[in-house]
Amino acid sequence: MVNTDSLSIAAHLRRGEFVLDVAVEVAPGETLGVIGPNGAGKTTLLRAVAGLTALDRGRIALGSTVWDDPAQGVFVDPTMRECPVVFQDYRLFPHLSVLDNVAYPHRARGASRAAARDRARHTVERLGLAELSARLPRELSGGQAQRAAMARALTTEPRAILLDEPLSALDARTRQKTRIELKQVLADFAGPTLLITHDPLEAMTLADRLLVLEGGTVTQLAAPREVAAQPVSDYVARLVGINLYQGTLVAPGSVALSPTGGSLRTTSDASDGVPLGQPTLVALAPSAIAVHLDRPTALSAQNVWAGRIRAVETLRDRIRLDVDGAPPALVDITPAAFAQLGLDLGTEVWLSAKATEVIAYGAQPG
């Protein structure tokens, strides 16, 4: 039977001075990625949903089944929640084969060894592990171990799945291949999935929506493309590699920036819906900013300002400049352009950006 139950979370709990306060609903078949800096509350949220940490107040339910409701005196044991957790270290039993690891949940529910293996074989085959079914965990690659852990989570046809940094134990090369495989597994899963991660690429590619946690509270909840295009905090802007500025819309298409100083022009259409005089956020991609040694005079460069290079970082296929100016900016250029312009730390430069590249939107998330 196809699971049509949503995972409803209204979680409030305190641990010392830290307070977690999250309200969200995860739809059937949806993967909700939870991302945030260290100490934001990601693991605390996962433990609350898994039943490893009880709520102080609030309610967690899957469909009509309530798992945790302190006001009603309800708390369902983790083993009864039909919501397995795939941890970052996979936690496979080292002395059991892949097949027996996947069969273990059936054995824990009282099935015989033969019956448990029979039920596990279908999941093992579905996740492409049939040829590895006799191997021990130490004989598996990182990607194979991750698939075995997912197979063990899926074998009992759970109603929801929790993923705790599922790819963090893998090297970069294996992570890319396994990410593709995991995305397909999640696409085939009919229940809600909660994905905890610190990796922005993992979050952007695996999740249908992103929940950004900062200091125990939700600062943004939206589709990955919206989060990337319109970050609402400095953390999210850094995460997706976007320059984010605060300011005030002083005229159609013109934003005065503070506290950085300076101003940026955008198109009138791009600032539609933002009332004049209201707090405004402005996003500008590092790749959309051009670098010059002399003040540019081209009419297409509606935004021009001076700055000084204060840091240089080599990325995969580009050079990232940290330029101090009004406003300060991260700027991405090619290695060839960096060499041709003779840039270095302390070089005084001019920056320019077209108004069409500047995105303005309300400071309060919608």
Describe the protein in words:
With 366 residues, the protein is of the alpha+beta class. Helix content is 25%, strand content 32%. The protein has 2 domains: 7-229, P-loop containing nucleotide triphosphate hydrolases (Rossmann fold, 3-Layer(aba) Sandwich), CATH 3.40.50; 246-362, Beta Barrel (OB fold (Dihydrolipoamide Acetyltransferase, E2P)), CATH 2.40.50. It has helices spanning 42-50, 98-108, 113-126, 142-154, 172-188, 200-206, 224-229, 234-240, 335-341, and strands spanning 7-15, 18-26, 31-35, 57-62, 65-69, 74-75, 85-86, 161-164, 193-196, 209-214, 217-222, 243-251, 254-257, 263-265, 279-284, 290-292, 303-314, 319-325, 329-333, 348-353, 359-362. A hairpin with a 3-residue loop joins strand 18 (319-325) and strand 19 (329-333). The longest helix is centred in the middle third of the chain and has 17 residues, at 172-188.
Search tags:
366 residues; alpha+beta; Rossmann fold; OB fold (Dihydrolipoamide Acetyltransferase, E2P); 6-stranded mixed sheet; 5-stranded antiparallel sheet
